[in-house]
């Protein structure tokens, strides 16, 4: 499962051509308009929930905020403080030219990535999510949204084979990035061993798990480990888990995508541990 949190250690975004110029293919044919260049570590946020939650987050530094007249009016009506530059819709469309069909709802921001917590010093409590090379930003964003809804303490993912917490992922998270911190690690199995040493129960979700999740003995703190679409958990990840659990479905379709499975698992786990009361 692929989920790389926003960091400044990523290569800067490189536009297809200089800002303001279209990218041309053979024969000078315009392929698509180039996106503007962004500084290293910049997180792109667009859409109502994504941007409004970022503005509410005092820990998020906004470098640039663009809004249409309607977008700014909605912020004012909701009492959200902002210093938006009012622009026509086409200006935001241009900035999101590299993201087809981006639904920005009249709001666009460039912001600093949030500082991640140190996994070694985080309180050993509640629920963590560990993503084993989940790469689809839509799925990871949906997972972040569910994690925020169920009070997950953090999402742990790897430096490689994970999407950055920006753009499409941030939009799919619908503001969840402001509430669930990302922690990136070099080696997921090693991080799992460190969490076990700190008292975490490691439960991997796997269609071939030994028992249904409802039957697995749980305790707090717990780390739920989820694998990528199709491939599932890698062998070393499976071997490092304390338990492998499946989610038995009563209907004709017996499997769910990883984001839906995460939501169900979080509902089951937080209910059994009394974390939803």
Automatic annotation (TrEMBL):
Family annotation (SUPFAM superfamilies): alpha/beta knot, L30e-like
Keywords, sorted A to Z: Methyltransferase, Transferase
BP term (GO), one: methylation
Molecular function terms from GO: RNA binding; RNA methyltransferase activity
Positions of the UniProt region annotated as Disordered: 1-27
Pfam families: SpoU_methylase (PF00588), SpoU_sub_bind (PF08032)
Cellular component, GO, one term: cytosol
Keyword Transferase: yes
Residue span, RNA 2-O ribose methyltransferase substrate binding domain: 44-117
Keyword Transferase: yes
SMART domains associated with the record: SpoU_sub_bind (SM00967)
Family of the protein in this entry: Belongs to the class IV-like SAM-binding methyltransferase superfamily. RNA methyltransferase TrmH family.
Protein name (database record): 23S rRNA (Guanosine(2251)-2'-O)-methyltransferase RlmB
Species this protein is from: Phreatobacter stygius
UniProt gene name: rlmB
């Amino acid at each position: 499962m692929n989920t790389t949190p926003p960091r400044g250690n990523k290569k800067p975004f490189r536009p297809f051509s200089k800002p303001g110029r279209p990218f041309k293919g053979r024969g000078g044919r315009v392929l698509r308009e180039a996106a503007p260049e962004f500084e290293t570590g910049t997180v792109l946020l667009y859409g109502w929930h994504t941007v409004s939650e970022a503005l509410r987050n005092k820990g998020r530094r906004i470098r640039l905020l663009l809004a249409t007249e309607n977008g700014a009016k909605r912020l004012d009506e909701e009492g959200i403080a902002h210093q938006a530059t009012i622009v026509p819709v086409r200006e935001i469309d241009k900035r999101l030219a590299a993201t087809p069909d981006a639904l920005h709802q009249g709001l666009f921001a460039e912001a600093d990535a949030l500082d991640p917590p140190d996994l070694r010093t985080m309180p050993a409590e509640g629920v963590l999510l560990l993503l084993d090379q989940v790469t689809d930003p839509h799925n990871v964003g949906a997972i972040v949204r569910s994690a925020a809804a169920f009070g997950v303490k953090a999402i742990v993912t790897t430096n490689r084979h994970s999407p950055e917490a920006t753009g499409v992922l941030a939009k799919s998270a619908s503001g969840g990035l402001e509430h669930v911190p990302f922690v990136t690690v070099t080696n997921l199995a090693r991080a799992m061993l460190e969490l076990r040493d700190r008292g975490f129960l490691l439960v991997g979700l796997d269609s071939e798990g030994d028992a249904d999740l409802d039957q697995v003995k749980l305790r707090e703190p717990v780390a739920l480990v989820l694998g990528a679409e199709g491939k599932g958990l890698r062998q070393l990840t499976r071997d490092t888990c304390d338990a492998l659990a499946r989610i038995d479905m009563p209907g004709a379709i017996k499997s769910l995508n990883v984001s839906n499975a995460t939501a169900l698992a979080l509902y089951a786990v937080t209910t059994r541990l009394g974390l939803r009361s």
